[in-house]
């Protein structure tokens, strides 16, 4: 136990970095995912194609490959950015594909009559998306989005493999100094479980308040 | 050319769609041009930096890596599926002392990052005298974490089989175990096949953690190659393309299997195309 208490500052710092990675990349991924979903349901063929290609590409590449490519590869073509910022952008781009998939399944769950009614009222494509389709779609995808959020939290730990000192990396460093793996790794695991539990609690509350029974 | 979100376009809408098409295409081309310029400005497009990847020895090295990736993925998938099936049956068991530990395992492991498990196997177990061979240092954590995911897939599949099916089994005098084995599981297995293939794509992606373990799968082979020939970005792009081709084929298989599923009822009308 003392292994953790003696190194509380390191763990705390790591936890902060993990929370930063999680919050910033989820925000970025949410915006990107929304844009991609709009592209995928739009009447413009080229935009639909781009959206589909984006989702296909990012879902079929390992996140660690993308992180390694960005962190070690980008400086080669003269793009130098901070390590944490690079990690946030890469994770956001990767998870955007999963958010887009979740949102699209939500759009598909909205019944066809809603879209027809919106058009019958004379709403344009973007108006019907904004006022009729997306609000309903978002309510049906709270649970799937919560799962994407939890997966994203777990995935931020991969940043440790390219040198970001997040919770996983902090645990590993403290263990190399103290050599007391059980309390250290169990402690780190509990911290992740706690974040996931919070996410589960919030999505559960949101779902009870917003879910629509059809 | 009409979907439920938009009408058959009239002349004005057609003009707008044409404009959006051109803008979209130009934006993508501009992005590509920018990338190419960035590569060229830093001398990364020089022929001698890409030439090596037109030669066989490089590819043989990477394909060896791919083979190790497949091997690790298959072994961990088999282990994870076996454990996952046991956990799913455990969670559905009528005995509390089986049900609670299985549920706990699934819920806990789902919220622990795979990399943390890899670190445990790499740095914690050796301290207790358990130093696994390289291959197992990658396979064990992957199997441990994916077992939970497979358990949830199997459980959903078993629960999706209509109650009447197992009731019928019990009514003709089969035991609980026989009903499960002969009636419920075969039907569940067919229904979860697409999810299993998708989860296996995820598992194949997870094997890139070999990068951390120094097990010579595809990504680690790329790292070794890049250190050796100094072609960092070229090597990692080639590696990424190999992953993309392999995983996209597997994902396509999952979609084909999904399309072949017999449907219980007519699918709803969709707002967007697949």
From TrEMBL, chain A:
Pfam families: BPD_transp_1 (PF00528). The keyword Transmembrane helix applies. The chain crosses the membrane at residues 12-36, 57-75, 81-100, 148-170, 182-204. The keyword rRNA-binding does not apply. Residues 15-203 form the ABC transmembrane type-1 domain. Keywords: Amino-acid transport, Cell membrane, Membrane, Transmembrane, Transmembrane helix, Transport. It is a multi-pass membrane protein. It is found in: Cell membrane. SUPFAM superfamilies: MetI-like. Gene3D superfamilies: MetI-like (1.10.3720.10). PANTHER family: AMINO-ACID ABC TRANSPORTER PERMEASE PROTEIN YHDX-RELATED, MEMBRANE COMPONENT OF AMINO ACID ABC TRANSPORTER. This is Glutamate transport system permease protein.
From TrEMBL, chain B:
The keyword Repeat does not apply. Residues 66-254 form the ABC transmembrane type-1 domain. It is a multi-pass membrane protein. This is Glutamate transport system permease protein. PROSITE patterns: ABC_TM1 (PS50928). InterPro entries: AA_ABC_transptr_permease_3TM, ArtM/GltK/GlnP/TcyL/YhdX-like, MetI-like, MetI-like_sf. It comes from the Bacteria. The lineage of its organism: Bacteria, Bacillati, Actinomycetota, Actinomycetes, Streptosporangiales. The keyword Signal does not apply. It is found in: Cell membrane. Belongs to the binding-protein-dependent transport system permease family.
């Amino acid at each position: 136990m003392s292994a953790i208490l003696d190194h509380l500052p390191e763990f705390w710092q790591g936890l902060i970095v993990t929370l930063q990675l999680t919050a910033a990349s989820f925000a970025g991924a949410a915006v990107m995912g929304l844009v991609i979903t709009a592209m995928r349901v739009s009447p413009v063929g080229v935009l639909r194609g781009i959206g589909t290609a984006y989702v296909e590409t990012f879902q079929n590449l390992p996140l660690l490959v993308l992180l390694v490519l960005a962190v070690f590869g980008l400086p080669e073509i003269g793009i130098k950015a901070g390590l944490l910022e690079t990690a946030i952008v890469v994770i956001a781009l990767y998870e955007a594909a999963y958010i887009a998939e979740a949102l699209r399944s939500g759009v598909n769950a909205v019944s066809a009559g809603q879209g027809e009614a919106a058009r019958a009222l004379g709403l344009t494509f973007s108006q019907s998306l904004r006022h009729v389709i997306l609000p309903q779609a978002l309510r049906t995808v709270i649970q799937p989005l919560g799962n994407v959020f939890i997966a994203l939290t777990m995935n931020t730990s991969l940043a440790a493999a390219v040198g970001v000192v997040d919770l996983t990396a902090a645990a590993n460093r403290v263990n190399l100094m103290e050599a007391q793996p059980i309390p250290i790794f169990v402690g780190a695991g509990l911290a992740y479980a706690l974040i996931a539990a919070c996410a589960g609690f919030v999505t559960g509350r949101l779902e009870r308040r917003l879910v629509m029974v059809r | 050319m009409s979907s439920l979100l938009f009408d058959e376009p009239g002349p004005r809408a057609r003009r707008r769609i044409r404009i959006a098409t051109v803008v979209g295409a130009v934006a993508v081309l501009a992005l590509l041009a920018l990338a190419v310029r960035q590569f060229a400005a830093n001398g990364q497009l020089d022929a001698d930096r890409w030439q090596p990847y037109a030669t066989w020895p490089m590819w043989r090295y990477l394909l060896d890596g791919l083979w190790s990736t497949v091997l690790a993925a298959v072994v961990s998938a088999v282990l994870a599926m076996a454990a996952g099936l046991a956990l799913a049956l455990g969670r559905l068991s009528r005995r509390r002392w089986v049900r609670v530990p299985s549920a706990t395992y699934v819920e806990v492991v789902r919220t622990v990052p795979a990399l943390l498990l890899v670190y445990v196997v790499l740095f914690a177990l050796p301290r207790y005298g358990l130093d696994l061979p390289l291959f197992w240092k990658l396979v064990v954590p992957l199997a441990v974490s994916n077992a939970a995911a497979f358990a949830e897939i199997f459980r959903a599949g078993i629960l999706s089989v209509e109650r009447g099916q197992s009731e019928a089994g019990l009514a003709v005098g089969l035991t609980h175990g026989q009903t499960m084995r002969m009636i419920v599981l075969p039907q569940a297995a067919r229904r979860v096949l697409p999810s299993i293939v998708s989860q296996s794509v995820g598992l194949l992606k997870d094997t890139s953690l070999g990068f951390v373990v120094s097990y010579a799968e595809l990504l680690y082979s790329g790292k070794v190659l890049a250190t050796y020939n100094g072609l960092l970005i070229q090597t990692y792009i080639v590696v990424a393309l190999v992953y993309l081709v392999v995983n996209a084929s597997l994902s396509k298989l999952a979609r084909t299997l999904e399309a072949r599923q017999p449907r219980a009822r007519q699918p709803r009308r969709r707002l967007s195309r697949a």
